[in-house]
Batch of 4 targets.
Target 1
Amino acid sequence: MLQFTLNDEQKALQAKVRDFAVREVLPAVWHYEDKEEVPLFLLKRAFELGIMNSDIPKAYGGQGLGLLEAALVTEEVAAACPGVATSLFDNSLGMEPLVLSENETLKKRVLPELAGQFKRICFATSEPTMGSDVASLQCLAERKGNRYILNGTKYWITNAGVADYMTIFATIDPKTQHEGIAAFLVERDWKGVTVGKSLPKLGQRASNTAAIHLQDVEVPLENVIAEPGKGFVLAMRTFSRTRPIIGAFAVGAARSAMEFAIDYAKKRRVFGSKIANFEAIQFKLAEMYQKVETARLLVWKAAWEADQGQDPTVSASIAKFYATEAALEVGNDALQLFGGYGYTRMFPIEKLLRDIRLLTIYEGTSEVQRLIVSGHVLNGYKPVMPPLEDLPMVRRLDLGNPSSQEVTAWRCRMCGHVHYGPEPPEECPFCFFPKTAFKQVWPRAEG
Ligand SMILES: Cc1cc2nc3c(=O)[nH]c(=O)nc-3n(C[C@H](O)[C@H](O)[C@H](O)COP(=O)(O)OP(=O)(O)OC[C@H]3O[C@@H](n4cnc5c(N)ncnc54)[C@H](O)[C@@H]3O)c2cc1C
């Protein structure tokens, strides 16, 4: 059964987060954006309200909410501030490898702790020299007895500066690419762990992004999230579940930009009329709304697939790159609609636009999403139509007239010319390819 309505629990969750976003996040964010600091008190409040870490499975003491619920929550928080949404949701990103891990002892130790206490966990694949190409990471993990020793630098790590736990991807040998990658749970206060200065950014300044330097960090075997050889797949499975949520960030941020634009269009008077009366403005608003609605449907579909236990990889990529690029267009159009005021820091549009800009970059750039989808289109997708060389589209055939079915038709594989007769011609009269270029398309071969 296909249905798009939310159930009562989902509606209640949405209402609770909406209230938190409008009454508590919105008034706080400009200050923290200016200070370039994570408003930790808001994350703590979200944790107390059951909004943060809500995806920890019930078996480990969590609420066990699905990805669809995560999308609902994220849209509302991102509508108030995408930077706060990134800081908040980063716990789910950091935790997901643990949730998917085969190390039950570690899961039983750490997940209940994250469900019960306000602790942050970040996720680190990226390094100064690589981001998109995860298989080429360099951070080294050397096995020594009952420990791994980590050496290397992780870069761009959201919440690194405020994290208690770090999910670190490292390799036993960089030359082996995918085959050497493992994942480890590292604690912030362990010897050899240093966090860099907070990176100054264009947007999402209410989120913390920093490097993690690991020097001879000793990780006990109990803290192995994924054994060498299993880390790369784990990172990819994680992204398949977290990319729809980046799409939800985009839906929330674009929705706010659109709402502010609607409000402004109804008030701003130009040439003796409200700008909402101009058809060019009306069409812009219509397109903004269309993009927000379309993006949400794609996000919900990807989240629904994940919740059904299906592999959401392709839908997650589509949702991410459509929603984030649509949000960029909506934010840009909203700023244009505000005229000069849109360009000032006195209205929220310039912040939204700067915040949205990141969404097409982290958790796999738009280009990387296109690589994933094109890989599926070219190699995995099962077409309904027959291959071109078997195409039974024959002009002289009148299937309403039974005698017409006597026709034998041959199709030139090169130029598509259809020849009628018991045999193919010696050569094609259009492209001059030889007889062997022709394939019989009617009567069609059985099966
Ligand atoms: C604010 C912020 C927060 C982040 N948070 C985290 C985090 O918490 N954890 C983490 O691990 N990482 C994080 N990242 C890193 C982020 O995931 C990477 O920046 C991103 O994956 C891109 O990697 P890169 O910057 O190294 O770009 P590169 O991989 O060097 O790519 C450069 C450009 O080339 C394009 N490109 C690459 N390969 C191809 C190709 N095959 N075909 C066509 N184009 C291609 C890319 O799309 C991009 O436009 C964060 C980044 C930022 C900016």
Target 2
Amino acid sequence: MYSLGFPRLYLQGYGIFDRIGDEVKRFGAHPLVVADAFVQNLLGERIETSFSKAGIKCEMLQFAGECSPSQIDFLTSRAKEFGSDVLVAVGGGKTLDVTKGMALNLGLPVVIAPTLASNDAPTSRVIVTYSDEGEWLGPRFLTLNPDCIFVDSQIISQAPARFFASGIADALATYYEAQQCLKKGADNFYNGKQTVTSQAIARICHETIWQYGKEAYDAVCRKECTESVEKVIEANILLSGVGFEGCGVAAAHGIGLSLSVLTPLYGDAKGLLHGEEVALGILAQFVLEGRTQEEIEKVQDFLISLNLPVSFEQAGIAEFSPEKVHLVAEASCKPKSRIWNMAVPVSVELVEHALNTVARLGRERLSRFN
Ligand SMILES: [Zn+2]
């Protein structure tokens, strides 16, 4: 079987946030908006004005903390009390995921309004859950993709550029991982093979990031929303999101996300964004693939130009000792890891070698810049 899923509606534009009421009205008459305190402060008034202009009353629910099963269940019970018939998530990754968790519990449509373009979460079915203490619990899955993705590019371009860069790294991984999954014949996130469309989406994502990524990042550093920024927002959110689910992921995610095993043990890699982990994962994947130093340097230079990490020191890992390298490699090669979607040989030893190579090449590359 070949398979590919999409959100039902994708909307993106400068300053469109004031139209959120009208757009949400397509999906229900009793919306519940979930946002954290920061976003409510920033956008609460605009949200209420927009819904009242659209002639419907919205309830607002403040979310704080983790996307944990207990938070999801608590917010679900509140949504039931309100009698909500559509959920609207406004904010970053955890807010989006907790709202998707509620939509899964209640079987309601969900509108996703991301305030950052920092990763693949908005369009995706994946819900990443943690314990209330912040320990990773693994994914849950919405039955289908979110119903509507509502992206105000003005808001995205005014957020700190580090988030935008992280989204670019996550989007950069999509095509490289898709290629490995295709060669391996691995299943995508719909338990099927890549369609021609999935492959085309991954390819366009790749082209857009390479062509406009740096220019767009520089514009976001200046808080400007140029044509390049619009293109890269679409790549970060839509192309990368639909692309990774329709193609599958591999070592860039398998290795990158395993860096977090060092956090509870050593306090390393703390506060690293998803895309920053993936940036290092791409480099490690390239080594596993046996790519040339020239190809690796091209990606290093691109990441450096976006202030993304190319060395483990930059990722907040004080001293990447053989023990730490081994722990990360072991976590990367767990039975359920996406690393097994790689079409080249993979083992703990090979991943250790890849990590050590990335460490060495990173140090060498950065010493040339300093
Ligand atoms: Zn990702």
Target 3
Amino acid sequence: MNKAFCKEPDQSDRPLCPACGAEGLPVSEATLLAHLDAADADTLAEPAAWCDTDNCPVAYFDALERSVPVARARGVHWPKDPAGALCACHGLTCDDVDSDLAEGEPTRVRRVIEAAAAPDACCAARSADGRSCVARVQRFWVRRKAARG
Ligand SMILES: [Zn+2]
């Protein structure tokens, strides 16, 4: 029954989101506790994962198909929260990226990407997906740039 317990512990073997079926991004307990109430974090078994699908209502889930919705998570970033920050630790917002695009110069984006690459960057610890903000900022930039034509 429980495939999770007899599989090899291997990176390609991540749990799938019970709502959208996408492969999740494994997250640490520290990430869970930073974005969920302890009672909600406690409902998930390890390894818990973040659902990275833009419009999926699930924030975190585990291999037993238990999940906590975005509505119960705190500090969720874009794109799950369209109004959320891109990089919470450096305060980069979607509006900042739009300003950069309007000016034709990625001043704000470049500053955050440099800061996020520094050894003392805390993006991964503060991000709901437990990852550095750089890829997310770049993803948003590319998307917005394409949308502007
Ligand atoms: Zn999902």
Target 4
Amino acid sequence: MTYSIWHQRRCQAQQIDVAIIGGGISGLSAAYWLQKHAPGRRIAGFERGEIGSGASGRNAGFMTCGSIAHFDRQRTNLGAETALELWSMTAENHRLLVSEGLLNSACDYAKTGAFSLSRASTRVESLREAVEVLRTHGATVRHVSAGEAPLPEFAGGYWYEGDGQLDPLRLLGALREASNVAWHQGTRVHQIQPTSDGVTVETDGGAYKATNVIVATNAYAPEWLPELAPWVRPVRAQALVTAPATRPLRAPVYALDDWAYLRQDAHGRIILGGFRPLAADEEVGTRDLLHPRVHAALDAFLDRHCRDLFDEAPRVQRRWSGALGYAPDALPIVGELADHPGCFFIGAHSGHGMGWAFVAAQRLAALVLHGTRPGLLDARRLPGHEGG
Ligand SMILES: Cc1cc2nc3c(=O)[nH]c(=O)nc-3n(C[C@H](O)[C@H](O)[C@H](O)COP(=O)(O)OP(=O)(O)OC[C@H]3O[C@@H](n4cnc5c(N)ncnc54)[C@H](O)[C@@H]3O)c2cc1C
């Protein structure tokens, strides 16, 4: 972006210590920890829409370590030790949000546990070893027979006690209130420019000079910072909500065969999302679009598995989509931008931002303030990084 001489006064860069770009769970969590550990710093947040206009205000509200099948995949791909460390970090994310007083009834939070269910008994059986590894690690995971499953037509599965559910937008509100950082909403950042004494942040509302910049724009990051394209793949996901059900759903459910997930909110409504693999090649990018084939599959799922929760046929009240960022190895990313000294990235939570962002942001704050490396989340593992 260029400026005319008439804009010059506006262009006099305001001095701040930290600029945070992106008002989702990543940006707000980063603001929270930076403010908590360095309260004297001048921190400003920039959000091009409203707080939560990205995926953080569009998700299903699972506070989760992921399904048992997710753990099993990580165990196969990364080894049991790494998979357990990742599982522990997401459990820690949940614990930290509670102990910091951010997850409570004000955001419709409940610790419910979650079911991982399959229609195929062979699939249920194939997860038994992963469950044993989790149990040895101290996790409470219980086998669920077909009769105990909360929905019909499932052969069974597992129930894990540690997960919960929440209203994600209310959690963002709690984080914002607790961190007391000034957020400039409706303010898009166009570019960040390293200079000899910091970083210039050029926004719709003028320029800022910051010592450090946190990029937390997730799926949208490669649109304005092309160097992040190898780290963040933007994909789209779909969700819907029904009118209130007549009967309760005992806990959130991962329906493993369909890559679907559902839960019941505080008003009794069923929130259902998933079926991405049905249109994996089409569900890419950041455009806000409903995908007809995916929504037809979501409707069919409601008919097949959720009829018992309703007296009448389930009625859909609203449908929406959201753009999220996937890392090449599906692990969140925390680290410096190779070409921008003083600038850091947090995001690419790969479908589980509610379950990851708070603990990832704690590690980000330790990296920014003390140079402590963020362990498994370290961006140095990725291509295009100095150390990678
Ligand atoms: C349908 C759906 C269901 C999901 N369900 C769950 C779930 O149940 N549990 C779970 O853990 N995760 C879930 N996720 C994933 C989760 O929502 C994301 O991982 C998480 O919200 C990512 O948070 P973020 O802050 O990194 O990104 P975002 O929330 O996308 O925030 C990025 C922000 O940056 C802003 N921005 C972009 N460009 C600029 C710019 N140039 N200048 C200023 N601001 C900018 C955007 O407007 C946006 O608000 C789901 C996602 C979707 C779409």
